[in-house]
Specification:
Blueprint: E1 2-5, E2 10-13, E3 19-20, H1 23-28, H2 31-49, E4 58-61, H3 68-78, H4 85-100, E5 102-105, E6 107-110, E7 119-122, E8 127-130, E9 137-140, H5 142-145, H6 148-153, H7 156-166, H8 180-203, H9 212-240
Antiparallel strand pairs: 1-2, 3-7, 4-5, 6-9, 7-8
């Protein structure tokens, strides 16, 4: 238990047991423990989505989730300052593919912020805890299924399989994992995660750094952005097989 005390609130808070479910932690676990985690995440997502009424099928554009105008401005006006022509072509191509992609899905009650910092795992009890529901709201179903957590752990296909088995098919339908439609949704949703990170990092770059701290910050952000481009390219290769 943690006592939180400030000028306005006094709260006795219980910390989730275990530690953040990072990629490093996941790799140390047994196959049985990993399977239990996949099962628990799939169950949690179904429970969240079906907690409240699910919408009728809607068309969804991924660009609605991205700060695409900021990306356009960065590509057109700033990117050449730090990146070569091939990098610019690559990120422009990725942007164009994302902008042209849309799919049919449903709005459902969602956690909306599943990452390793918001999921704790206790290896002693095999208990998985989900925290930080500040962004919980209606969102399109695949956002939580193909979230940063599943991407980082490399379990997005397994979680989707579990979700398909557990969800109430009378409420909404979703395609099998081997269908081309689902493969495209999965690919572009995962690419969207990397692209969001790229855009956020680009917002922090300084065109005229005034001190060593700003110069070092720029260097770190540029290296991170190159990693996102490389990750997208690797993901595309995986889905081309």
């Amino acid at each position: 238990m943690i006592f939180v005390n400030d000028d306005e609130f006094q709260v006795l808070e219980e910390r989730a047991p275990g530690e953040p479910l990072t990629c490093e932690l996941f790799r140390t676990l047994s196959k049985r423990q990993q399977y239990e985690i996949v099962n628990s995440i799939g169950s949690f997502l179904v429970d969240m989505n079906e907690l409240k009424p699910v919408s009728e099928p809607l068309q969804h554009k991924l660009t609605d989730e991205l700060k695409i105008k900021r990306l356009d401005t960065f590509i057109d006006q700033k990117m050449s300052k730090w990146f070569n022509k091939n990098d610019i072509r690559q990120i422009s191509r990725i942007r164009d593919h994302i902008c042209s992609f849309e799919y049919t899905t449903n709005l459902a009650w969602s956690h909306s912020d599943l990452n390793s910092g918001n999921v704790f795992y206790d290896s002693k009890t095999s208990r998985l805890s989900f925290i930080d529901f500040a962004e919980t709201d209606y969102n399109f179903i695949y956002r939580d299924i193909f979230s940063p957590l599943q991407l980082e752990l490399g379990i997005y296909k397994q979680v989707y399989d579990m979700y398909v088995k557990l969800h109430d098919k009378s409420l909404y339908t979703i395609p099998g994992i081997k269908t081309e439609n689902l493969r495209n949704i999965m690919k572009y949703r995962l690419i969207c995660i990397y692209l969001k990170r790229f855009i956020k990092a680009s917002d922090d770059l300084r065109t005229s750094p005034k001190n060593d701290k700003s110069v070092n910050n720029n260097a770190a952000k540029i290296a991170f952005m190159r990693t996102q481009i490389a990750s997208i390219q690797n993901l595309e290769k995986q889905f081309s097989k």
